[in-house]
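The authors assume throughout that readers already know how a fold can be written as discrete tokens. The format is easy to grasp once an entry is in front of the reader. For illustration, here is how one protein appears when written out as sequence plus structure tokens:
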Amino acid sequence: MPRIALPVPYGCNMTGINAKAVSALLERARREVDSGLLPAAQLALALEGEIVVSEALGDCTTGTRFHTYSAVKPSVALAAMELAADGLFDVAAPVRDVLEPFGDNGKEAVTVSQVMLHAGGFPYAPLGRTEATDRAARMAAYASWETDWAPGTRFEYHALSAHWVLADIVTEVTGRPYADVIAERVMQPAGCSRWLGIGIDDQAGVADVAGVGSVPTAAELAALGLDELPGGVSTEALTAFNRPWLRAVGVPGGGGIARAEDMARWYQAVLHNPDGFLHPEVRHDAMVVRQNHPDWTGTPANRSHAFTLAGADGKAGIRGHGHGAPAEAFGHGGAGGQIAWADPDSGISFAYLTNGLDRNDLASARRGVALSTRALACAK
């Protein structure tokens, strides 16, 4: 498969970067592509606001766009937080104060903050094609949703449901399509392209996703003391994002489309806040752990309103960060092995995207930790 490498794009130099560590990172990233497991992958490393390493592996170029899945969530949350900082609503208030139908069926006390923290109690609340394309139908669906557990009492990842609610709050308080507001508030000021709501006429160069590999073996699960992994988003549901209409919708919890360079650059912007595009209080809040109920592994969630923080308890790898990540490192991954984070200590940000959706979630998680660990080592 062809490989295109741009190790020093845009005239950047490698000052502050360990070239030997970069070689180790690229060697690890090539492994699954060269073996034929992954059709393509793309990675980028940024420092001091600039892309310093950019590589495309397999059947793609550095200009190819990939599905980011849940790695888009922080941009949605930050846009909502910015509007709250403008005084348009209160993050601590009940969702029903903004979206009145949401308060039905015992959800009257669920706060916007709880929704952002995956503590809203409705992790599996469904939406179909009609609701995805019809806001009035979504409002009716919100009214029908019930909670599975008392809001605020536990952490359970809301794969899609929570960020639909946040997106509709954005639309409600601005009177405008949420994808446009997110692009204008937290993407364009950061020098980044739009990640949500990619029109059908603008989808050339978006890599289709495909399931690859096999599910974990019984032996792999037994080694971790498990009989099975908890239910997640199926490969069939993830490959549905190949459909042009769904890409155009801009599913706020998982419909992101971007290049690795864009993601690494965006995290640089969040690190440095150029021209104050984020309110200082919003940026601060995004870096503070607000939710620490344990996840299904028993690991404290370490969630801010926008990101997952690495933490200082030695469990950064379980949270999707690299081994040795400082406690303040922040980021958010996506299904199928997508990676995006920043390390305030070194100033590095890193992104990795692939269109090969590994059915072995354990192998995908190990790959993510290995890549992130090597990326952390790239700082001198």
Summary: Residues 1-12 have pLDDT under 50 and may be disordered. The longest helix spans residues 19-34. The chain has 13 helices and eleven strands.
